[in-house]
Amino acid sequence: MNAPAIASLSALLVAIAVVLALAVRRGNVAAMVNAVVSLAVAGVAVAAAGFQFGTGFVAPELAFWTAVAGLLHSIGMLGPYESVWWWDHLTHALSAALLTALAYAGLLVATDAAVPVVAAGAVAYTVLAGVCWELGELVARAVGERYDVEPVLVYYGWKDTAYDLVFDVVGALFVVVLDVRMFVDLAATAPATARQLLVWSTVAVAAAAAVMAVALLARRGRQSA
Fold it and tell me: In CA terms, which of 45, 91, 149, 158 is 20 to 30 Å from 5?
């Protein structure tokens, strides 16, 4: 990477670290946890952008996109999610677009399916991940209520959940309609690995969603008994 790219990515990481420091200062545990996770994920992406894999490099665009998404989410946990009506929509669309772009690239490289089928698969993958995230918010709320602690993820109600999923789809459609192939070269460096990641991540996300759904239904049953 060139010097401006390194400087920009470093600035994004520093910005997330500043958000983390603000969360610590305010004693906001949920914001702290989310900032730590965002910093870790963005840090790994940035570090990976500097290492050679096969004949190519991990795309710096992946590092930028990941860092920006992590920064916006971390800032949101400090208040904008509640005070700025469009902040949640922006972060969901941006994160969903990133996930879809990765899935789209992986499917294009790892399968022989037609582009419309690949596009549908990438959107479905993102929607599944979105449903899993929303179930995670419900589980976080249940854990918070059970142990009287601040939930790591905040649940804002069914209307918010519906909007979240809508903007997940908006972000996903943005990628497939514009045929964004930003990460195809990255996936092409290791097609077998891309295929395995898609398969196992789909299984893991589907399993996690199923387990959380069953646990939430069981909890509701106990409460209504």
Answer: 91
CA angle, 95 then 97 then 101, to 5°: 120
Burial 143-176 (b: 16+ CB within 10 A, else e): ebeeeeeebbbbbeeeeebebbbebbbebbbbbb
Is residue 52 within 8 Å of 22, Cβ to Cβ? no
Q: Which residue has the higher pLDDT, 47 or 33?
A: 33
Q: Which amino acid is at 10?
A: S
Domain parsing of the chain, residue ranges: 1-84, 85-225
In the predicted structure, residue 131 carries a pLDDT above the cut 80: yes
Give the integer Cα–Cα distance in Å for 121 and 43.
Answer: 29
In DSSP terms, 56 is beta-bridged to: 53
According to DSSP H, which parts of 27-86 are helical?
A: 29-48, 60-76, 80-83
User: What's the length of the chain?
Assistant: 225
Task: Kindly report the pTM of this predicted structure.
Answer: 0.91
Give the integer Cα–Cα distance in Å for 59 and 51.
10
Reduced to 3 states (helix: H, G, I; strand: E, B; else coil), residue 110 is helix
Nearest to 168 by CA among 137, 133, 220: 133
Report yes or no: 53 and 191 within 8 Å, Cβ to Cβ: no
